[in-house]
Records
---
Amino acid sequence: MRYSLLSLFVLLFICACQPVADENSVKNPENNTRIKADIVEANGELASSKTAVISPPNVKNQWQYKITYLPPEGSEAIKDQPIIRFDTSQLTQKLMVKNGELKTKQKTLENTRLTNDAELERLKLELAQANMEKDKAYRKWNKSNGLESNLETNQLALEHEIAKNEARRLDRSLDKTIESNRINIAIEENNVSRLQTEVNQIQNGIQRMTILAPKSGIVIYKTDHQGNKVSVGDSVWMGRQLLGLPSLDSMIVKAEILEADAGKVSIGQNVKIVLDAAPERIFKGYVSVLGQIFRRKSLDQPNIIFDAEITITEPDSELMRPGMAARLKISLTKPSVEKVIAEAVPISTILASTATTSKKDIQK
């Protein structure tokens, strides 16, 4: 009995001294012991590698936009259907003002043309009358040569010269008036064209304040640098990303790797992915993109992290949605030569080749 108790005590002592198997350890096939696996654990968030981003439109002299319509987040957007609308009251008011200015300038142009035409007709009549007077004075002066006294002849010659100078003056005045009218008409036409362009720009801007979905997809609200999402009634600045339409068949994981583990991760490494929304399923992927810089995780969490992207080889478009939390296990273990050969050449081929060689040796 004493020896049995002693043996039991020694057995318990030996078992207590054995190391506890780690969940990330693997079994060594050579000596049947467990060794630590090369794994880096990280967290991440699902995203789409192909996402159409919706931002405020580029409208001239418009820097701030007030949202009047948004579809619910997670709803299905249909291509070429409205996905977001902005307030157009300011643009509508501008359009009314510009339309009023345009009508005024169009009326001014019309009046200028009528006035110019009337002025030209008056000058043409005066010129025609002056030419008639010039011809009349010339005939009188020409008939008086040798018939009238020198005094009367000189008087008729003077009247002819005066009539001729008046006709020249009116002819030059007509040319100047035609050129002046041409310039005035060009100025007024330019004013009308400029205002018409401004009206067209405002009308185009009003149309662009309703954005159509460039593709069908799930509506995802984008967050700003403080993590805030937009809502109806918000005023946003030009250039801000408001909505996203991701393609669910091209999903990735935006991973955040701790600074201490960043040097172990490289492109092409295999990754096991578990979603918090479906912990019973394990998805496979690989490291496809590595970030270029280290950064702080957030203002509240000063941990230094390194960004990476994990491509999911077989995404589930029915389950996966952008923004889902994911837990990652990045495999750092390099495959052995035997494993590479086994994966590259099927074992059946190796056995068949070995059997053929042995048979030839026996025949020899």
Note: The CA atoms of residues 151 and 157 lie 10 Å apart.
---
Amino acid sequence: ELEAAGLDFDKAIQINPCCSDYYFDRADIECHLQNYAAAIDNYNNAIRLNPNRYLAYVNRALAKIALGDYSSALEDFDILIDEKNIITVEVYFFHGYAKYFLKEYADAIEDLDFVIQRRPDFAFPYIKNPHSENVSEKCSSALTNSGEAGETVWYKGVAFYIRGLCKQMLNDISAACEDWRKAESLGSKEAAELLIKYCK
């Protein structure tokens, strides 16, 4: 069904190549199919035609994260924060998340502090576990669905969990364990595993 829908959008784009919506929806389909490079190409066109479409920047950045291109993803989030003045916990979470993978741990902690202060129970679907080789499953319009779990796998306590990882990398194990305890209390199984391993 997704492939057929993609073909429909291809036809729509041929008829009207100046419609940002068509490229955005085509990109979402590519994300569902895990064709992240193709998704990025379509998000590029969606942004070219509508530079103020902030979800296109978000989803493009998530597709880049799925490909392990954290530097480029961070550039998209920087645009949202610095140029578009999009100040949301989702944007700041992934801004910090990308910084974690770039080993900018202190800066990542600042971003995650922002998230935790405003929404300590923050959860998000389809993210890559830093201790896993599995990439994000999907990147499509995740923010628009963030209020409904459905069959989505939600990573609970994730801001505390990632902040704890940053503190661990900065050799502050005591503070890392404190964050992982908070993450565990919110339902993070990943944090519970790290507590057993590092916080006896």
Note: The longest strand covers residues 123-125.
---
Amino acid sequence: MGERFNADIIIIGEAFAEWAVGTSGFVSYRAQAEARAIDVHTGSIIAADGKEASAADLSEEIVGKRALREAGKALSEVFIPKLHTWIGGEEMRTTEVELFIRNIGFRDLTVFENALRRVQEVRTVKRLSYTDGVAHLALELTTISDAFADRLLVSPLGSFTLEIERDSPGRIELLCVPYPNNSR
């Protein structure tokens, strides 16, 4: 199959989602994704793993896909470093970045943190403090992203925009500007 598509690696596997439980109008699904990355020239397995995830929503059509996406994301966190190393890159490293956000409401902060967790380069998000509209977060990022601060400006991460006040190695300071008519 690798020769047919002129590929050095093939990834094979399967994923499925199934109904788990439904309560109070919400539907919950569990998903499982399993895959193997195979070197087509030697037949050796570069990476193999399986991950599970769950999701809940009001819509049954959406929730199964969401659970599958989360399981796939968890699986990619295992595969990407191994594939990167296989193609001759150094072992992927992570870097810590402190993020300070001024003028952010607690509800917006929670939405922002959840949106950050869906960004591929973000490994972990930890809230260190929140006082008087100022949030202090610690992020662990993969070194794939050179322009993480710039990405924060263009990615829809909440009902507000962000302005960079300072950007230095290991530290980004942001100002949260709510959209007009957005109550925090």
Note: The first helix runs from residue 60 to 86.
---
Amino acid sequence: MLATSEVLDRRNVQIRSIGRAERDPLITMYDRFEPLGGSLGLPSYKAEVRRAWIDHSLRHTVNVAAFSPAGEVVGHCMLAADEPGSAEMAIFVHQQSRRRGIGRTLLRAALERAAAAGLGRVWSLTSPDNRAALRLQESCGFRLTKSMPLEAEMEIDLPGSEELRRYN
């Protein structure tokens, strides 16, 4: 996927909204993603199920991706509207690009787009063992709302876009 000499961080990735035109680069990232099934079963182990999930995800309210200087997708965040004013968030950063601020930059971009789209609440489910995901979301203003043995729910009430910038 990434050249081993290419060092990525939040300063040299491009974050942008994506749609069907970016399907193939998104599939490439998820096909090389590890661990498959590591986030409550996502992304799927089965290629055909993974591709259907990607196709479905590209229809959601907000879809943003992080692109390396070479144009490869190294991260993806989507918000799926579940009821008026609310959306579920999912975020995935390729294993070679983690712990470099890319996830935080990607999530903040998604939250800004959500606020601009009029969403008032974004929530997520993750494994309570996924400390990196929990820390990432907390650093962007999410709070823990439910903690159960197999999943943790977090949410953020979205202020206007200006207030979101204070988490930058």
Note: Residues 1-5, 161-165 have pLDDT under 50 and may be disordered.
